[in-house]
Amino acid sequence: MGKTRTRWPVPTYSRGVPGASGRVLVVDDNKVIRQLIRVNLELEGFEVVTAADGAECLEVVHQVRPDVITLDVVMPRLDGLRTAGRLRADPRTRDLPLAIISACSQHEVDAGLGAGVDAFLSKPFEPAALVGLVRRLAERGAGGGDGRGSAVGCREAEGGSAPPPAKRAG
């Protein structure tokens, strides 16, 4: 049915919003999940902009200029893994920290690492795990390094352990 965009058109943002922990672009086709992620991150001081799918993410990313992008995997028009690949192929976004927030199957972890994703979080997730993951990625990105190269924070839905860190090629 007709999905509405939560913020459109998106104004051009300047860097550095006083008091904000960082700007996060949340990309998920499920409006309830987008709102859940938004509220939890805003409560912790993040500025949050949302997009309903990968195509919308690519339309707004240069205006939003996020510090971190979270992506669902299964979305209409353009899925999260292909979106991650396109973000990594663009010199303006190749170093942005990317996190997949999805069912986090081993296939998604492997495909995500191949596409350049930095971190994974399984749905359903604890709000504290979400905030911690986004905060770590925002801090790594602000530290001047590329912030990439390992799987951080992928939990099994039943509370299993994270996979060992894996280096990406490239």
Q: What would you say this structure looks like, in words?
A:
With 170 residues, the protein is α/β, with parallel strands linked by helices. It has one domain (22-142): Response regulator (Rossmann fold), CATH 3.40.50. The protein is 35% helix and 15% strand. It contains 5 helices and 5 strands, in the order βαβαβαβαβα. A 5-stranded parallel β-sheet has the order 2-1-3-4-5, sandwiched between helices. β4 (98-102), α4 (106-115) and β5 form a beta-alpha-beta unit. The model is unreliable at 1-17, 144-152 and 155-170 (pLDDT under 50).
β-strand percent reads: 5-15%
Poorly predicted regions are 1-17, 144-152, 155-170
CATH architecture: 3-Layer(aba) Sandwich
Radius of gyration, in angstroms, nearest whole number: 14 Å
Strand order of the largest sheet: 2-1-3-4-5
- What order do the SSEs take from the amino end to the carboxyl end, as H and E? EHEHEHEHEH
Compute the number of structural domains. Answer: 1
Share in helix: 25-40%
Please tell me the overall pLDDT.
80
Which word captures the global form? globular
Q: Could you describe the largest sheet, including whether it forms a barrel? A: 5 strands, parallel
What's the oligomerization state? single chain
Give the helix tally.
5
Backbone structural class: alpha/beta
Query: Number of DSSP strands?
Result: 5
